Task: inverse folding
């Protein structure tokens, strides 16, 4: 039986974001369908949860980026936010059918931004199978 060593995660490494409704694809990308992108949260868009990072504190700022453009951000201001995932959204008008790179970065007080790398590769398909439902 082949036993591989577990990957060592650095102390300050940022965790993968959680995307409710995303489907892992065989090629390592994430599939986003119409429901995940637009229907589950129609006013906000695609929901992304960023897990708490090491040494998290009030005043830390997290920025969600789609193809290197900031689409949402949040600054932590309460003690309750330090133990819960930060919930951010990609607005419905920002996400179209195609391939996208999604990442985030954390800016701690008085420090340089820490980017999440490598970015997640998203494949978005907003068309319904079989075309428009006329019934």
Result:
């Amino acid at each position: 039986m082949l036993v591989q060593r577990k990957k060592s995660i650095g102390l300050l490494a940022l965790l993968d974001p959680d995307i409710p409704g995303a489907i892992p694809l065989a090629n390592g990308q994430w599939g986003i369908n119409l429901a995940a992108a637009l229907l589950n949260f129609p006013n906000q868009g695609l929901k992304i949860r960023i897990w708490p990072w090491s040494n998290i504190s009030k005043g830390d700022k997290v920025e969600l980026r789609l193809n290197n453009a900031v689409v949402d951000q949040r600054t932590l201001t309460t003690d309750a936010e330090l133990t819960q995932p930060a919930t951010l959204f990609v607005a419905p008008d920002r996400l179209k059918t195609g391939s996208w790179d999604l990442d985030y970065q954390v800016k701690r007080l008085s420090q340089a931004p820490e980017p999440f790398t490598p970015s997640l590769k998203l494949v978005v398909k907003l068309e319904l199978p079989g075309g428009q439902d006329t019934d």
